[in-house]
Amino acid sequence: MLAVLATTFPFFALVLCGWLAAQRGLLPDSAIPGLNGFVLFFALPCLLFRFGRDTPLWELLNPALLGVYLAAALLIVFFTVATTLSARVGMKDAAFGALVAAFPNSGFMGVPLIVALLGPAAAGPVVSTLLADLFVTSSLCIALAQAGTSSVAGRAAFVQALRAAGANPLPWAIALGAVVGASGLALPVPLSKTIAMLGDAASPVALFSIGAVLSRSGRANRRAGRVTPPRLVLPVAAIKLLLHPALVFALGAAARGLGAPLSGAQLTALTLVAALPSASNVSLLAERYGADNGRVARIILASTALAFLTFSGLAAALIGAG
């Protein structure tokens, strides 16, 4: 357990540093979009390019792995909608609550953290889940959120979400890396070093940015008077941190028992992805589509704070059992 905490602590400490910097005004709110832009368009694509280049294509698109992960994601989405939909929480808010319950922070946090815990071989499963969530989970939840208006609006929202995922630089960085790796192309040394330097910056800046975004969202919601009671926050955070990884592990173990080509190491990586806190960018999506951003932001904050204990505990158990 101590060895796992020694690995996970710096990652969560950097999130806390970003939160404190924004809270204390050391990082102005106006600087946060620039920080996110650096991570999204420069640093993280270079990191994912390297993983895409160094990971065999069949590991990135393993149908057994993707099938288990997407089955769990769909079950979590519909379970969360069914259990949270109420007079207080409408369909739009229930759908975005389902998205924070099913969409882990695999890009900004999961890739560097799980690779640090399990080694470079874990990159393939983590990157696969990122692609699945960008194209399927998020598109489905956005469509459900808009379906409350009309079925036509829901279909249009689904198509729009797919286009947005296609415009995201992260899948293209992974695909370009896979092409370069499959072709055996050697990049010029100066270009390779530039990519390496940007990729190395991805993890610390992304984690710092998560904390800053959470701080800004919390302060903005308090100023707007959007105060969400804990009973609308903690159950969804518990679904994300406890039920989601348990479901992925159970489905993965069942698939392995039926002979699916899913190794124990891949199942461990897949389960740890599901145990990550909610993706911080869901708050921006909720705001864009007119959902209760205050509730979504509080769920993300709660899952991030609690994940230091739940994720570390699960990682210690899985690594120890392995």
In short:
By secondary structure, the chain is mainly α. The chain contains 14 helices and no strands.
Question: Could you please describe the fold and organization of this structure?
Answer:
The protein has about 325 residues and is mainly α. The chain contains 14 helices and no strands. The chain has a single domain, classed as Na+/H+ antiporter like fold, CATH 1.20.1530.20. The model has no long low-confidence stretch (mean pLDDT about 90).
Largest sheet: none
H/E series, N to C?
A: HHHHHHHHHHHHHH
**Tally of DSSP β-strands:** 0
CATH top level assignment: Mainly Alpha
Overall pLDDT level: 91
Structural class: mainly alpha
The CATH topology: Na+/H+ antiporter like fold
Number of helical runs? Answer: 14
Give the count of structural domains: 1
Q: What is the CATH architecture term?
A: Up-down Bundle
How is the topology of this model organized?
Layout: H1 2-23, H2 32-54, H3 57-60, H4 63-84, H5 91-102, H6 106-118, H7 123-147, H8 151-167, H9 169-183, H10 189-223, H11 234-257, H12 264-274, H13 282-288, H14 293-321
Helix pairs in contact: 1-6, 1-10, 1-14, 2-9, 2-10, 4-5, 4-7, 4-11, 5-7, 5-11, 5-14, 6-7, 6-10, 6-12, 7-8, 10-14, 11-12, 11-14, 13-14
Task: Describe the structure using short key phrases.
322 residues, mainly alpha, Na+/H+ antiporter like fold
